[in-house]
């Protein structure tokens, strides 16, 4: 089989890239390790920057998002038991965020692929990349028990942090930067009314907690946990009790509780691999960089990579010019580092690190910075500008 762009992975990065290329008349094939149900079943963050929403519109998959997504113009920052609002001043910046789960984005993109009869090859086993040095980029895998070979002009690794594409770069080409945080997030999804109209990021003396949502009737809550804890140790009752306690007297009693639909623990990591291209092999999304979920930048960064890469690929396939492709890694990484910085800062501002005792210096400094943040117009504007997404 031959295609212009061979894509590994059908997460948001791979699906969005393929759909945008299709709109521009460029052909692609996606090889995905898991089943559609497995990919759709993963619960991830749910905050879309305006730039991401615009790209989903461009890809022709924005309809349900506009019907069901909730537009938010601010967030709450809670500390010392008091919740403070930081508005995005959409009237000045023209920017808001849309609350719409990554799961739903993935479904909409998968439906668009199915509707044009070009499903990804789901459950493609043992995907391998070859021919990069020789200039004959090829993907090989096992599909339904038989060998499948895809000859490509370009290969894009959208296969997440654990994928094969980054590992296929020669080791002397890649530079990696990594911080694994000494805690995780325990997340619960439940069909209960959100506690507040807007998200609340809470620095409690026992750790971080977040009140998020998916709709007017579905909430997503997180609390900071130890890395060695397991979900079995967290009954629904224990989770709600802890969460209500952490949200304090003002917000806690308003939290509606109910049976969890999903409960999981996620580790937190900041990671960047540079460059994002080797010859005809490109990386996009989590295969090249991972952010901690504080600020929900993961999916939005995958979208900005896809934006720069689509521009380069369209130029290349229509005129033969490689200038956009040659600039891709530098352009994408410049924006990646801004989000790495922001999510790092937001994580350090709101979480309890084991090295800080509750009443130690680091906690005092967090509170001083939070006080400054909620009082200073320029500090609030800086958070808002990053939260709604820096321009492409
Ligand atoms: N072969 C084929 N597919 C693979 C392989 C492989 N060897 N390894 C991983 N994959 C698939 C995974 O099954 C997954 O469906 O690649 C896909 C990667 O998707 P994501 O992890 O969702 O990554 P990405 O598309 O870059 O999206 C970034 O989504 O994953 C979240 O937190 C992440 O929000 C961020 C955003
Ligand atoms: C979520 O709703 O899952 C979510 C929202 C905001 C974040 C992280 C996760 O910063």
What's the SSE blueprint?
Layout lengths: L4 E4 L3 H12 L4 E4 L4 H6 L5 E3 H9 L4 H6 L1 E3 L1 E6 L2 E6 L2 H4 L3 E3 L2 H14 L9 E6 L7 E6 L2 E6 L2 E4 L17 E16 L9 E5 L2 E9 L2 E8 L10 H11 L1 H4 L8 E15 L2 E2 L2 E3 L5 E2 L7 H22 L3 H28 L10 H15 L1 H12 L4
Parallel strand pairs: 1-2, 1-11, 5-13, 11-18
Antiparallel strand pairs: 3-7, 4-7, 5-6, 8-9, 9-10, 12-15, 12-16, 13-14, 14-15, 16-19, 17-18
Helix pairs in contact: 1-6, 1-9, 9-10, 11-12
The site of P-hydroxybenzoic acid has 10 residues, from loops.
Comma- or semicolon-separated keywords:
28% strand, 12 helices, eight-stranded mixed β-sheet, 36% helix, five-stranded mixed β-sheet, 392 residues, alpha+beta, FAD/NAD(P)-binding domain, binds adenosine-5-diphosphoribose
User: Considering DSSP H and I runs of 4 or more, what fraction of the residues is helical?
Assistant: 25-40%
Major sheet attributes: 8 strands, mixed
Mean pLDDT: 96
Structural class: alpha+beta
How many helices? The count is 12
Q: Which consecutive residue ranges, at least 5 long each, have pLDDT under 50? A: none
* CATH architectural arrangement of the largest domain: 3-Layer(bba) Sandwich
DSSP strand count? 19
- Radius of gyration equals 21 Å
Bound molecules: adenosine-5-diphosphoribose, P-hydroxybenzoic acid
Strand order, main sheet: write it out.
6-5-13-14-15-12-16-19
CATH superfamily of the largest domain: FAD/NAD(P)-binding domain
Backbone shape: globular
CATH class of the largest domain: Alpha Beta
- Cα distance spanning the termini: 35 Å
| Whole-number count of domains | 2
The portion of residues forming beta strands comes to 25-35%
CATH fold field value of the largest domain: FAD/NAD(P)-binding domain
């Amino acid at each position: 089989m031959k295609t212009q762009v061979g894509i590994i992975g059908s997460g948001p990065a791979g699906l969005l890239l393929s759909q945008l290329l299709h709109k521009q008349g460029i052909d692609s094939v996606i090889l995905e390790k898991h089943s559609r149900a497995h990919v759709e079943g993963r619960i991830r963050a749910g905050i879309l920057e305006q730039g991401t929403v615009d790209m989903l519109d461009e890809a022709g998959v924005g309809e349900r998002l506009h019907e069901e997504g909730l537009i938010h113009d601010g967030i709450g920052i809670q500390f010392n038991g008091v919740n403070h609002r930081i508005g995005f001043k959409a009237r000045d910046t023209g920017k808001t965020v849309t609350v719409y789960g990554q799961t739903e984005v993935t479904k909409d993109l998968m439906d668009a692929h199915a509707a044009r009869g070009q499903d990804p090859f789901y459950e493609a086993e043992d995907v391998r990349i070859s021919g990069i040095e020789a200039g004959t980029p090829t993907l090989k895998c096992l599909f339904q028990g038989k060998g499948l070979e895809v000859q490509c002009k370009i290969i894009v690794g959208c296969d997440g942090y654990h994928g094969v594409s980054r590992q296929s770069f020669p080791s002397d080409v890649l530079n990696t930067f990594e911080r694994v945080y000494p805690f995780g997030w325990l997340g619960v999804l439940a069909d209960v009314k959100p506690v507040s109209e807007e998200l609340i990021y809470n620095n409690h003396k026992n750790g971080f907690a977040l009140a998020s949502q998916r709709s007017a009737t579905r909430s997503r809550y997180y609390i900071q946990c130890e890395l060695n804890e397991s979900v079995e140790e967290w009954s629904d009752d224990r989770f709600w009790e802890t969460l209500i306690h952490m949200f304090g007297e003002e917000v806690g009693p308003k939290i509606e509780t109910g049976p969890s639909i999903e409960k999981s623990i996620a580790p937190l990591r900041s990671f960047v691999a540079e460059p994002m291209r080797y010859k005809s092999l490109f990386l996009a999304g989590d295969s090249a960089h991972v952010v901690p979920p504080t600020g929900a930048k993961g999916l939005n960064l995958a979208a900005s990579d896809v934006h720069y890469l689509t521009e380069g690929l369209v130029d290349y396939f229509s005129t033969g010019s490689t200038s956009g492709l040659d600039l891709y890694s530098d352009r994408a990484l410049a924006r990646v580092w801004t989000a790495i910085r922001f999510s790092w800062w937001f994580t350090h501002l709101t979480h309890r690190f084991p090295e800080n005792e509750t009443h130690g210096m680091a906690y005092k400094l967090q509170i001083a910075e939070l006080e400054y943040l909620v009082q200073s117009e320029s500090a609030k504007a800086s958070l808002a500008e990053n939260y709604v997404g820096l321009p492409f």
